[in-house]
Structures are given as C-alpha cells and as structure tokens.
Hints:
Elements: H1 20-31, E1 36-39, H2 41-47, E2 56-59, H3 63-69, E3 73-76, E4 82-87, E5 90-96, H4 120-125, E6 134-137, E7 142-145, H5 149-155, E8 157-158, H6 164-170, H7 173-185, E9 188-189, H8 191-200, H9 209-221, H10 225-234, H11 238-241, H12 243-252, H13 274-293, H14 299-311, H15 320-338, H16 342-359, H17 376-389, H18 395-406
Parallel strand pairs: 2-5, 8-9
Antiparallel strand pairs: 1-2, 1-6, 3-4, 4-5, 6-7
Helix pairs in contact: 6-8, 7-9, 7-10, 12-15, 13-14, 13-17, 14-16, 14-17, 15-16, 16-17, 17-18
The chain binds adenosine-5'-triphosphate (ATP) and magnesium ion.
Amino acid sequence: xxxxxxxxxxxxxxxxxxxxxxxxxxxxxxxxxxxxxxxxxxxxxxxxxxxxxxxxxxxxxxxxxxxxxxxxxxxxxxxxxxxxxxxxxxxxxxxxxxxxxxxxxxxxxxxxxxxxxxxxxxxxxxxxxxxxxxxxxxxxxxxxxxxxxxxxxxxxxxxxxxxxxxxxxxxxxxxxxxxxxxxxxxxxxxxxxxxxxxxxxxxxxxxxxxxxxxxxxxxxxxxxxxxxxxxxxxxxxxxxxxxxxxxxxxxxxxxxxxxxxxxxxxxxxxxxxxxxxxxxxxxxxxxxxxxxxxxxxxxxxxxxxxxxxxxxxxxxxxxxxxxxxxxxxxxxxxxxxxxxxxxxxxxxxxxxxxxxxxxxxxxxxxxxxxxxxxxxxxxxxxxxxxxxxxxxxxxxxxxxxxxxxxxxxxxxxxxxxxxxxxxxxxxxxxxxxxxxxxxxxxxxxxxxx
Length: 449
Ligand code: ATP
Ligand code: MG
C-alpha cells in the first residue's frame, strides 16, 4: 500500500518515479484535449511503492490521432490495435479506451478481436484484475478507481474484474497472469477467482503456443519463479503449459517432478527426488539472481536452467560428443512441442556446452578464449546460478568473472549462430550465497487463504 497509514484514491503517487517520457506522452495528449491517464501495472506498482517495469498510457484519442500527435510513433497490432511512442529504444505503449469486446459466435467465449473504442469506464472493465484496472490522473495526481482495485491492493488480493469464469474463458492466459501477480506481489488469489481458475484450466489449450511460452518466460524471469511454479502445479496448469517438460521428468525418474513440500523430511533424499530438488534449487537461485542484479536472464539461460535438472550432473564428466548428443536429444523432446525458437535453443546448448568447459577439471578447458564468445555472458550468468543452486564452492565462478574483467571485450564468435543478437551485453552476476538453504520451505499461495 501507499504508506503505512494512508491508502485510497487520493493518495499521491511518487511522480519522480514515473518515466519522464511517459509523462511527456500524457501531457501532450492532455494538451491536445484528449482524456489521458497512466494505466495498469505502473499505477499498481507505484501505489505499492514498487518500481514499475514499464509505463502504459490509456487515452480517448484513437490510434490514428495518437499517431498524428507523435512523429515518433507507430500503430501496431490487429487483434488489439494500439500505438507505440518511441524514445530511443524505449517504447511507451499508448492505447485507446476500449470496451469489453463481444464474444465470438457459439458457446466459445474466446475473444479474438478487441478493437471497439469506449469510455474510461469501459476500458477499466475490460482489464483483467481489479489491481490492474487503475488509472492515474496526472493533473490532480490521484488514482481513478472504477473497479475497487485499491481495497484489493491494500488487502493483497488478486480478483478478476467481473465474473471470473467468463473472464478466464475469454482469455485463458489470464490464469497464468493471476499466478504471476500472486507470486510476484506475494498476494492471495481470491477464493471465487481461484475456484473459477481451477474449473477452467482445460481452456488453456485454446491459447496459442507462442503466448503460453512467452508467459512461462515471464514467470521465470519475474523474480518469483519458485512460487510461480508451485502455483502452476497447485492449479494443475503445469501440464498444459510445459507438457514435454513433465514427460522428460517422468522418463528420468519414477516420481516425475515433485513439489518441494513433498520431500521427505529428516531423511536422506532418495535418488528419484534429486532432479526435483535440483529444479527448485535452480529456481531459488534464479530468483536471487533476478532480485540482486535487477537484470532479467535471457531465454537461453532460462532454457538451460530447465534442462540442467533433467540432464543432471553426469554431463560435466561426459565427453564433448556424448554431452552434445544428450543435450540434442533432450532439447528435441522439450523444444519441439513448446515451439521454442531455434535461436534460444541454440543459445541454451552453447551455455550448457560452455558450462562443461568452465567447471571441467583440465587447464585446457579453461582457455580464456571462451570469454570472447558471444554467448559467454549468458554462460557466466548460468554458472553463477548453477553454483548457487548446487551449493558448490564459487571458485570457478570467481575465476571466470576475473577473466571476463581482464580479457578484451567480447567479440562475435566466428562459429556463433546467434550472430545478429543485438541484446546489450551485461556483466555476469551471481546471487550472493545464502547462509541457510531453503529446500522444501516454499510457502504455498493457498496456504491459509
Ligand atoms: P507487468 O509489471 O508484468 O508489466 P502489467 O500489469 O503491466 O504487469 P502488462 O502485460 O504490461 O501487465 O499489461 C498492461 C495492462 O494491460 C495490465 O495491467 C492490464 O490492465 C491489461 N492487460 C494485460 N493483459 C491483459 C489480458 N490478458 N486481459 C485483460 N487485460 C490485460
Ligand atoms: Mg506492464
């Protein structure tokens, strides 16, 4: 909530935390006579005194009017038409107020078109959760709350706007979004919303593979991946979003992927539970990386993290050829059904192959030329996370971090198939070691709710 004892729509938001370019967009549209607000996640996060990931604007101006107001803008989307206003590489998403669209024919409530313009009230009601349906009125620095979102923010509750079953049927991706926000904000999913979610999970199969995969990546890099995945399992959504991953675990162990809470207490861990434990430890380490560095891991690192518990430790001693084969076979099983991009898959393979060299026993493997590979940064991030997850000594990580600092800047490698990857390079970071390990202590979102 906004402060310890002040809540409600009249609480001023900290405007110095608002992106100056987003403020420019709002001010200019207001000056041209269009009703305009900051909206959605940024208002929610500013109210909670969290740093927003991005700033979205909602306005009465049509996409064409927005386009004409800003030379640095472009209209995008067909299913959901809106304008992007560019400031260098930054984009301020600016969308026109729209109504809840009429569902397509038949009993199927899935929304496929969403371009009916409307009022601010309509626009609030078509949003997914009450906490995401808030607008910020810049002229008066106050929140416009037409969906009772502020009481839910104060109570820490995720609740759909309107009938939850209908809202999940309209767009099943909202179920994964509910889990994402519950995990990330440490909120509880309100009972009616939760029951509707449990009853509607099967609809997830209607979502496109690409959207589902994107949501999975967001869960992984959101800083609360462990809790997100616990919730995915609890809601029985996991088999719909990562079916091939579940199968891989089943092939590898009799017990499949086991929830952290189910590990036998005070007993040595049976072999069949090891991959599951490693899975949760990797997610813990990933979350620490995200929160401590403020950076988000690449898709390649995320895939390597998913792969690591499945291919397990033997890979480090395997010959290069055997490891390559194991990775290929595992990737084939995992990536095809999920529609994973070839480029991400290739980066994950490079990270895992580099990992073997980075932790390998011989000096030959420690050749500094590795530092100059384009994938080195990702391999270093993965190494930091892996060392943390396995509770290992971080000597190797420090070694490679030192090399990275002394060897000439990375250059595109001749053999790198990820050429053309224009992501800015960042220095590797490793989450700080925790004193106590937290296996099995993840609190379920539903506990006590
Ligand atoms: P994040 O911090 O992850 O960016 P966000 O709430 O800003 O969270 P976005 O995906 O950026 O989420 O979407 C911006 C806003 O658009 C949301 O706050 C919500 O109001 C609305 N929105 C996004 N996806 C949906 C959806 N599937 N159904 C209804 N409204 C949605
Ligand atoms: Mg957002």
